[in-house]
Amino acid sequence: MRFFILLSYNGSAFKGWQRQINGPSVQEHLEFAFSAYLREKVEITGAGRTDTGVHAINYVAHLDSCNDSLTKEQHLLLYKINAILPSGIVVYDICQVADSCHARFDAVSRTYKYYVHTKKDPFLNEFSCFFPYELDIEAMNRAAGMLLGERDFTSMAKLHTDVKNHICTVTRAEWQPLSPLNLTPLSEQPYTFCFTISANRFLRNMVRAIVGTLLEIGRGREREEWLLEVLNKRDRGSAGSSVSSHALFLNSIEYPYKTFQIN
Length: 263
Hints:
Alpha-Beta Plaits; alpha+beta; globular; 6 helices; ten-stranded mixed sheet
């Protein structure tokens, strides 16, 4: 039997989703927890990789098992699994799916969010990138609109990976101002912003490179049209620097069929 798992994790303490030989990973901890509770070797497949320090909300993974507790004792199972897992990982739900379902290959859309603040704020640093420059959000959104559709993102991808092509179809790319935390004084101008991007697939480092490129436009160092020039060059060196991973969240994953109650 195949089961989908719904979880979230704070990536600060992990070397990303995928099992690593040089540090702890989310996949490693999940496999240990489920194997310990079910008393069998469990392998877990995730919806995709996230790099070191990147967080995930409502992440989806799958596992195969014939253990009855996965269908008959789910409340107890979730309680026990979360007790085994470190504080940075929580499993919300588990549901049985068709044996042919695949957490990674069946996903039709993924959405990432990146958070930026332009005014020094001690309460935002853990999950937001401090970028101490005034930003032209309208210019950044006009440039972000050039990302929409099917495009070659070689210029925004990590070099020397094993992907066969760099073509991605982006369906959403926009910046929005956010209200600051209630812990901070009110400000006449917004200084916290969120970049949201959705696509059928993402390349390694792609979102962080896109954000770094758009920030160069937002602070006035580059023209809006520069984004298209960067994409057309298909050269990673032509784009902006990658921003820090600590402010990046894989926010949602969509499938062409019903999975959990929240879907």
